[in-house]
Amino acid sequence: MDILIIGMISYLMGSIPFGLILTKIFLKKDIRDIGSGNIGATNVLRTGNKTIGYITLFLDIFKAVIPVMLVKIYYTDFLYYASLCAFIGHIFPIWLKFKGGKGVATYVGILFAINIYYGIIFILSWFMIFAITKFSSLASLIASISIPVYLLITSRLEETFFFIIMFVLIFFTHRENIKRLKNKEETKTKIY
What we know:
By secondary structure, the chain is mostly helical.
C-alpha cells in the first residue's frame, strides 16, 4: 500500500502545472499559446515577464524536492521510484491531458533532493554550455548526461542506471529541440 500512496503523491505533486497557473493568474494568458506552447519555465520566460518565469522555475524545482525529500527521510527504499513518479507527473500531467513540460526544472529538484552534489554538477554544466551556446535545450541535454557520466566515472553503478533512464526521458521530451538544433533553427534563450 505504501508504494501506491508514495507513487500517487509524488506524481500529483509533480503534475502541478505552475507555468500555466501563474501565466493565467498574473498575465491573463495561456502559456500553451505562446512560444513553444510548453508549460515550463523556459517558455514562460518567452512571455517577457522574467519574474513569472523565475517563480515558475523555482516552483517546478520545489514540487519535486518536497516528495523526494520526504521519501528520502521516511521511505528510503522508494527514493528513485518517488523521483521517477514526480518527474513523470511533470511531463505527463493528468490535468492537461498528459501534455506537460520537458522536465528539466523538476529533474533539478530531484537531483538536489537525492544528492546536493548532483544538483551542483548539473547547474555548473548547464551554465557552462549555456554561456557558450545560449541554447537552453542543448545546455539541458548535456547537463542531464553529465550526471550518469559522473556516476560511471566514480563507479556508482547502482545509481547510474536510474540517471540513464532520466536522461533518456529528457532526450525524449527534447526531440523537437534536437531537430531544430540539427537544422540550425533552435531559438536562443535570454535568461536575464
